[in-house]
Amino acid sequence: MSYITALNTANPSFTISQEQSADFSSHFMGKTKDEKRKIRILQRATGIKNRYTVLEDYTKKENFDFYPNSENLEPFPTTSQRMKVYEKWATKLGVEAARPIIEGREKEITHLITVSCTGMFAPGIDIELLENLGLNSSTQRTSINFMGCYASFNALKVADAFCKAYDAKVLIVGVELCTLHFQKQSDDDNLLANSIFADGAAAVLVEKTPRINTTNLFLKNFYCDLIPKGKQDMAWYIRDTGFEMRLSSYIADILGGEIEEILNKLMAGLNIDKNSDSISQWAVHPGGKKILETLAKKLSMDKSKLDAPFKIWEEYGNMSSVTVLFVLKELLHNKEKYQLKNNQLIPSLAFGPGLTIESALFELVEG
């Protein structure tokens, strides 16, 4: 058995409104008046209010620090230049997320799992976190890289396995700096990606037993599956000028067609109905407004059961793998608001390249 006993999140200091994002994107991506108008409509339609970024340039109209101060942003930043910014910020955000949940217990941590799909270097963030947080040098380290928005589930499954095999205390730290990878080509994939992705970090402590006087989440079950027909609709590539996203508008429809069967498999053998009164909220990765609305419709679900994912979407956007952890934190820190009680179940979903769907079933346990 294993439990999430602590969870914390962090964001960069720069906030960008959708209006500022639309100004930046329309100026550098819109070649015609119609293209500029399309960008503004798309950004408004996302339903996002604010996002966070490590790059202050997105809040400016001139005097950029990272992008060239030219009319077309040329010479456009290379992948190398973007990774240097990742190296500067990733550890800082990871430490900010992790330190509060392990303070005073640093030497108890037996395993460290890092998660990121927006940057990498070696010696990497795992070693830098170990040093900056004061963990034992013998702490066992595992890095989960480039898996996309569902990667936190892979980290939780690895942590669960460690806890079942040993008397482990596992620290998971995810850092995603999606805004480093702005692309200026005005195709639909880039228009959508530039309008929704953001930066954030999250840290989770997973232990073999629940912590006393704390709200814990028991890791009750996991299920993973692939939807091959969606393989070309969500993808993530390393290219010369950063990482490039392929993100089709058809993803919501593809997920909607498969989601019920996947949930049935997640809950198989547990005698739980997805519409059970024991489920008051769902921790779904908010990959898009349409995705959340489609899932609610396909599952005949009261939309209020997705209040937390919608809130995170509006206030933070899509921070890739750490976003679902922001949703879980929102639920745990506002139990009364979301009508969460002891032994309540929280189904959770995320999706990414493949088209992969990862799912988990958590049970709230008051220690």
Automatic annotation (TrEMBL):
Location of the Chalcone/stilbene synthase N-terminal domain: 4-209
UniProt-listed SUPFAM superfamilies: Thiolase-like
GO BP terms: polyketide biosynthetic process
Record keywords, A-Z: Transferase
Superkingdom of origin organism: Bacteria
GO molecular function, one term: acyltransferase activity, transferring groups other than amino-acyl groups
InterPro entries according to UniProt: Chalcone/stilbene_synt_C, Chalcone/stilbene_synt_N, Polyketide_synthase_type-III, Thiolase-like
Catalytic residue positions: 149
PANTHER family hit by this protein: HYDROXYMETHYLGLUTARYL-COA SYNTHASE, TYPE III POLYKETIDE SYNTHASE A
Similarity-based family: Belongs to the thiolase-like superfamily. Chalcone/stilbene synthases family.
Name the UniProt record assigns to this protein: Putative naringenin-chalcone synthase
